[in-house]
Specification:
Elements: H1 4-24, E1 42-44, E2 47-49, E3 55-58, H2 61-64, H3 73-85, H4 96-108, E4 113-119, H5 122-137, E5 141-145, H6 154-159, E6 175-178, H7 193-211, E7 216-222, H8 235-248, E8 251-255, E9 279-282, E10 294-299, H9 300-305, H10 321-336, H11 339-361, E11 365-371, E12 374-382, E13 387-388, H12 397-408, E14 411-412, E15 414-416, E16 419-422, H13 430-445
Parallel strand pairs: 3-14, 5-6, 5-7, 7-8, 8-9
Antiparallel strand pairs: 1-2, 2-3, 4-10, 9-10, 11-12, 12-13, 12-16, 15-16
The structure holds pyridoxal-5'-phosphate.
Pyridoxal-5'-phosphate binds near residues 63 and 122.
Length: about 450
Amino acid sequence: DFSEDELEELRGESQRAYDLDRAHVFHSWSAQKQITPMVVSRAAGSYVYDGEARPLLDFSSQLVNTNIGHQHPAVVQAIKDQADVLCTINPAHANDKRSEAARLIAERLPESLNRIFFTNGGADAVEHAVRMARLHTGRRKVLSRYRSYHGGTEQAINITGDPRRFRNDMGDAGTVHFFGPFLYRSEFHATTEAEETERALTHLRRTIELEGPQTIAAVILESIPGTAGIMIPSTEYMQGVRALCDEFGIVYIADEVMAGFGRSGKWFCFEHFDVVPDLVAFAKGVNSGYVPLGGVAISDPIFDTFADVAYPGGLTYSGHPLACAAAVATITAMEDERMVENAAQLGEAVVGPRLREIASRSPIVGEVRGTGMFWAIDLVTDKDTKEPLAPYGGSSPQMNEIIGRIKAGGVLPFANYNRIHVVPPLNVSEAELMEGLAVLERAFTEPV
Ligand code: PLP
């Protein structure tokens, strides 16, 4: 809660922040002259405050990373306490907060994943996971699915199976894309989940065989693809991928950057499918984004590859003390306040049922899918043809209208192409969820 004076000050600062932004800041993924970024200088819990000091319910968790909401007092305090004693350190040294963060992460992973290599975020976690897989196998190719996102750096964007890749595509980056399961928009003309699973696995097997298994280092999969649409694979599919990797000596990398750390209602999303990856890339929720941090969890056989031969890679800020202090405090708060359980319970009892009810009333909600605090609403012009409300990789006046309605209703949405995602903090309250979902219902039921 801000005082009137604080809010007044905030309003005063905003215009200057906006003007300086437009004069000097170059934004990600944007045509620089076509954007009008909202100023945000304050946030608390599930709310961010815009330039007019108007609260917006954060149904985006920013870029699906503020898993414990904004300004959690224990994490803010941990960052301050760490800043008092040690702000930064050469990663060659051991450090108390880095050691503790690694322990807390490893303890939540399956037994075989014991070592943590820290990075600054998700894309570099993916890059290092791929590098480890290549060095471990002596092979070069990486297989990843269409409808995926793995990060914005050179290798990670080439692995990405999404239109964001197109203008960056190197063509020769050693990446091969395949179709994953997505029954609602099936590439395999399947009409049941079982058919989709079987056909998607056959397709992956044929891709491996025709590419040459001896050339393939890794298969990388988001356990549930995030920005690409929150399509939940079947357990049989995920176990089938694991079995194919075992059969052909291929490293299975789970990209848990978005879906990990409680987002799906479990600590790690692959737990839903009872599979154990060889490498796990993580970031975002590990410390709720309060200080940049990511990493790779490494299984024992891959660790052994680098036990007596140097791993040729590193980062000045690997395991940064402020970021690791934030991770220790975040994971502790998530555990103490039962946030993962909250996400699982409210996802199943509130978000799912409410979204399905909205879908049944709205002419433009084609499908809703999700788990935990990780839901997508697939918007269409026609429920029979499933024509997306905006083209894949693009926007449309109708989608812009929907986004505008949601914001006008006091909710900050996560929008991607023809989809609105419901991805609030894991510790969102039931009342906040009901408030936000009511705004969505109005946005989807009025004619566009
Ligand atoms: N992998 C996945 C699944 C992601 O969702 C993202 C970011 O959204 C990344 C990787 C890249 O992470 P970062 O933006 O921290 O580099």
